[in-house]
Amino acid sequence: MIPLTVRSSYSLMWGTTHIKHLCRHAKLLGYTHLALTDTNNLYGLWPFLAACEREGIRPIIGAEVTDTNTSHRAVCLVKDREGYGHLCRILTLRHTDDDFDLKSSIISLSKGLSVLTSNPELLSIWHEAGLDVLAALPRHPVSVTHPLRQTAKRLGIPIVATPGSFFIHPDEFSVHRVLRAIDGNTSLSRLKPQDMASQDAFLASPKAYQERFAVCPEAIANTHMLSERLNFTRPEFGLVFPPYKTDTPKQAALRLRETAYEGARHRYGELSEVVVERLEHELKTITQMGFAAYFLTVADIVAESPRTCGRGSGAASLTAYCLGITNVCPIKHNLYF
């Protein structure tokens, strides 16, 4: 069994589990592969990849996408780099387009994705449109007469077990209920069953799932079949910043140096050896890390506001002080870069 529908605390107000605990628990249960399919986002992607690497688990990248106007939903799992880009576009549309339609959006951006759905209508439509679509058998197997299984059989579409999880231990259901009550601005006593996941929506062992899906063993086997097609394990890029105006990285670094020294002379007048030495060290580090354009962009943004207040890991830098991003002298107050 490969868990293909797993949510973390990044499924906001639904999931309860920190990603590092999720991956550690999956490892203890004996899983070699694990999907993270948080609802309508990829917020936990990088922590997930790091945790999988620590635990020796092969990651499967995906997300559950819901429709804005209906109860339709689908789990999109990434097969290749193109599919990752398409999933990012689908999620962007989901958050920015008031008229987002799950059915049509996935059709136009399906290449490189395996799509799981429990909706017989969507299963049929997406199959006819040529998508790599599979029938997602829900937490408790449905009978052979259920429309989902009948549609899958008629169209020759594989069925995969998708028990789904929102927490990792049964006793975390109480935490899940609190989150749902907060999200609904209501009390625990007024929560309806449809407002929550079920009590067994925790990440169980492979043996437990095999027993649960004993009436449909092919659904378990197909999770392994599908996982072999999901070869994309991480985006092959690091931090991505847009260029500063039309500058190349080298031009941005030169522009940053000129702007920083101009600001330093404005701040200090004649530059002391301490100021020059620290500024040179910071500029060298910033350039090596590819952050020159980022500092220039932030300086432009801050310049539009009459009040400036830097924060974050770069707020104690002399460079930020000289660019006018911050107004606290790091040399006077002995702040670390």
The gyration radius over C-alpha positions equals 25 Å
Low-confidence stretches: none
Q: And the CATH topology of the largest domain?
A: TIM Barrel
- Give the name of the CATH architecture of the largest domain: Alpha-Beta Barrel
Structural class: alpha/beta
What is the count of structural domains? 2
Quote the beta fraction.
5-15%
Q: What is the highest CATH level, the class of the largest domain?
A: Alpha Beta
- Give a short account of the largest sheet: 6 strands, mixed
Shape: elongated
What is the overall number of helices?
13
**Spatial ordering of strands, largest sheet:** 1-2-3-4-5-6
Give the fraction of residues assigned to helices: 40-55%
Q: Strand-and-helix sequence, N→C? A: HEHEEHHEHEHEHHHHHHH
CATH superfamily of the largest domain: Metal-dependent hydrolases
The tally of beta strands, per DSSP, is 6
The mean pLDDT is 94
Gap from first CA to last CA: 48 Å
Question: Overview of this structure, please?
Answer:
- The protein has helices spanning 19-29, 45-55, 81-96, 102-108, 120-128, 147-155, 173-183, 206-212, 217-227, 249-268, 273-288, 292-303, 318-323; strands at residues 33-36, 58-66, 73-78, 113-117, 133-137, 159-161.
- The longest helix is centred in the C-terminal third of the chain and has 20 residues, at 249-268.
- Helix content is 43%, strand content 9%.
- The protein folds into two domains: 19-227, TIM Barrel (Alpha-Beta Barrel), CATH 3.20.20.140; 249-323, no CATH class.
- The protein has 337 residues and is of the alpha/beta class.
- Strand 4 (113-117), helix 5 and strand 5 form a beta-alpha-beta unit.
